[in-house]
Write a structure and sequence with these properties.
The protein contains 10 helices and 8 strands. The chain is of the alpha/beta class and 273 residues long. The radius of gyration is 17 Å and the shape is globular. The mean pLDDT is 96.
């Protein structure tokens, strides 16, 4: 079984064919998908998606790119939502997607940066209070994120779409995090990502699509450019080829790593008949 640790199945890009997208992923061997929210307004959509599709598991949080339009009460809404959902049939497996984004110009400085940081810090506190792992958005913000992780010490989690240095990777691993690899790994020009995928300890890696985002190299111009969870087996194969190991070894290891990073997900599988 493969686990997609980051798939926005609830996204509007899948509105017209979401049933088919999910069915094709299952047919391809993707047995579980983690669906992270990006804003308080999307919590209900993530919940509905995970209730409709067996094998989908929610995470709730406020994405850094959505902080400019987030309400000041949204972190309180997140606390109330987690309180209501934990222990239920579709209990959240993480707080996410949260973090910092220092790529988007308007978010890099001033009020935009301060607002990102305030939401990130408060959500780290929430994750710690609920003893939940976090799913991190770290684009061009690895060192500031590591600084806050060392301050607040959440229960590990996943550094989504990892694209840092070897030293930064080792810092995340030392803090109990797994590192997410997906479509970027399929580009021959992504030399740093491919080197990390090849040489980092296999027990530190998880697979993800970030569907519908980060389309892989094998999508041709003019085709449907959406990334999809059904592509996860091809990402697993890319990782196996980079490391020179059997595909089965990648499937087994990355699934075990995902369950280790997200204990709530592991508990669901242990409880299954």
């Amino acid at each position: 079984m493969l686990i997609d640790t980051h798939c926005h199945l609830d996204a509007a890009e899948f509105a017209a064919d979401r049933d088919d997208i999910f069915a094709r992923a299952q047919a391809a061997g993707v047995g579980a998908q983690v669906v992270p929210a990006v804003a308080a307004a999307t919590f209900v959509d993530v919940q509905a998606c995970c209730r409709r599709y067996g094998g989908c598991f929610p995470a709730y949080g406020i994405h850094p790119m959505y902080t400019p339009r987030a309400g000041n009460e949204d972190c309180a809404i997140l606390r109330r939502w987690l309180t209501a959902e934990l222990g239920g049939p579709q209990a959240p497996v993480a707080v996410g997607e949260i973090g910092l984004d220092l790529y988007v110009p308007q978010l890099q400085q001033g009020e935009g940066l301060a607002r990102q940081e305030a939401f990130f810090v408060e959500q780290l506190k929430i994750a710690r209070d609920f003893d939940l792992p976090v799913i991190l958005h770290i684009r061009r913000a690895v060192d500031p994120i590591l600084k806050q992780l060392r301050r607040f010490r959440p229960r590990g989690g996943i550094a989504h779409a990892f694209n840092g240095s070897r030293q930064q990777a080792e810092a995340f691993i030392a803090l109990g995090f797994k590192l997410g690899f997906g479509g970027s790994m399929t580009f021959s020009g992504s030399t740093r990502i491919r080197e990390l995928a090849t040489t980092l300890p296999l027990e530190a890696l998880v697979l993800e699509t970030d569907a519908p985002d980060i389309p892989p190299a094998f999508l041709t111009p003019g085709s449907d450019r959406r990334n999809k969870p059904e592509y996860l087996p091809r990402f697993a194969l890319a990782l196996a080829e980079l490391r020179g190991i059997p595909l089965a070894a990648v499937t087994t290891a990355t699934s075990a790593n995902a369950l280790a990073a997200l204990p709530g997900l592991a508990a669901t599988f242990r409880a299954a008949p």
